[in-house]
Amino acid sequence: MPALDYPSHLVEDWQLRDGTPVRIRPILADDLEMHTAFVAGLSSETAYHRLLSPRKPQPDELWRWTHIDYDHELALIATTEVDGMEQQMGVVRYVRGDTPETVHIAEFAVVIADAWQRHGLAARLMRKLIDAAAQAGVKQLADITLYDNIAMLALARKLGFRLRRDAGNPNVTRLRLTLDPAPD
């Protein structure tokens, strides 16, 4: 059962180029089991690029990633039906800063299950996240990625992010996107 503040206006049905039906929607607390299976199914390379380390997310992190305070953050998942069961294909999220100075800046993340990469899903999810963030008053999305995460760097460029190698850590590239204010 969605929370009272569940942003149902963000639910969208879409199709991959090959006709696979996709539902994009905000994550729910009830998605914990599906999200846990999604994270467990990521290849070590995909997981490493997402977490910037070989560590495995702990149960409390997975719980936190599915129990969203929609005023402060948003996670959109893409799902499809496989053998009669809903399966998560990918996720994008943003989390706003905690202080008055950073409340309009949000860190973001994106990860797509290996089987669903290179189908346009990351771009579709990111565009939807960017639009939702702008509507929520976020003025800037920012994050870091590894310098060799070619797919993420290409996606960021395609979406208009500014990329800059981190002077303090040459293994990291900083990504920033200034958002257009949402129309009134």
TrEMBL record:
Molecular functions (GO terms): acyltransferase activity, transferring groups other than amino-acyl groups
Keyword annotations from UniProtKB, A to Z: Acyltransferase, Transferase
Documented EC number(s): 2.3.1.-
CDD domains per the UniProt record, alphabetical: NAT_SF
InterPro entries xref list: Acyl_CoA_acyltransferase, GNAT_dom
Keyword field contains Transferase: yes
A Pfam family recorded for this sequence: Acetyltransf_1
EC class name: transferase
Top-level taxon of the source organism: Bacteria
Tagged with keyword Chloroplast: no
SUPFAM superfamilies attached to this UniProt entry: Acyl-CoA N-acyltransferases (Nat)
Signal peptide (residue range): none
Residues in N-acetyltransferase domain copies: 22-180
Gene3D superfamilies, per the entry: 3.40.630.30
Protein name: Acetyltransferase Pat
